[in-house]
Amino acid sequence: MTVVEIVDRTSSTPVAVEGPHGPIRLKWHKLRTRLAEAPFKRSNLALGWQLGASLEVDILATADGRFAVVHDPTLGPSTTGRGLVAGMPIASMKGLFHRNADGEGDPDAPVLSLAELLAPLRTMPRAPSANLQLDLKIVGGRRPPDSAVADAAAVTGVEGIIIGSHHLDDARRLAAAIPGARLGYDPMLAVSRQPGLRDPERLLRHIERRMAGVTLVYLRFDAIVAAEKQGFPLVARLLDLGIETDAWTVNPGRETRDATLCTLVEAKVRQITADAPGDIFRMIRSL
């Protein structure tokens, strides 16, 4: 990337947007700044770290007890490889790349271990507001082995780490292995398994019972909209508990209308997850 390209991207890639209740962070989902680009690009990690962005990478345990930075339980079709991540050693993924929207492998987005991807952050300047969510994926109920948890300790010393997951006990275990890491909880898997939790007041009680150490809750944006329509201020009630809300995943399209964004902004969400943060920034600014 040339100096001109860096300057252009620095000026055009937003990390937050001002709302009526204060700034709203725009988290780069899978490190994306544009919907069509490959996920987990190394240049986006570096850019966001220096701009002060909220960033997200997904991690899954491999057969040899490492964490690979991948979103899906299988390598294909989202990468140039094939096979179950949990059934392969990390070394067998060398030379693979994440694909962009055209299906092409991106050399700037190799399939890496967590330690490999984050190694440059140890010496890279970090803007004070920069943070990185490690979204812990659990496949088939298989908990990450102790060796994988130890592998995550490779990020010890990197500030601004947040461990988030549908699986709160496993997230707690991982966060405990990384000094200074914050804890996030995504209850939407529990909602899918317990339809009664679609009631926002019951969902709040569910979170309250599990809130020890949790600083951030990840909610599907439509769950927030539904709660607001029912007259229950779920996001505001979580703020009263000292917990911020991240609304995921908000991208341009039929489901993302001005009314939806207005609802999220007025509900006091503190973070919005997006694959195209620039588009969401412009849409909110135009409200």
TrEMBL record:
Name of protein: GP-PDE domain-containing protein
Origin species: Allomesorhizobium camelthorni
Residues in GP-PDE domain copies: 55-277
Organism placement in taxonomy: Bacteria, Pseudomonadati, Pseudomonadota, Alphaproteobacteria, Hyphomicrobiales
Lineage top rank: taxon: Bacteria
GO molecular function: phosphoric diester hydrolase activity
Classification via InterPro entries: GP_PDE_dom, PLC-like_Pdiesterase_TIM-brl
GO term, biological process aspect, one: lipid metabolic process
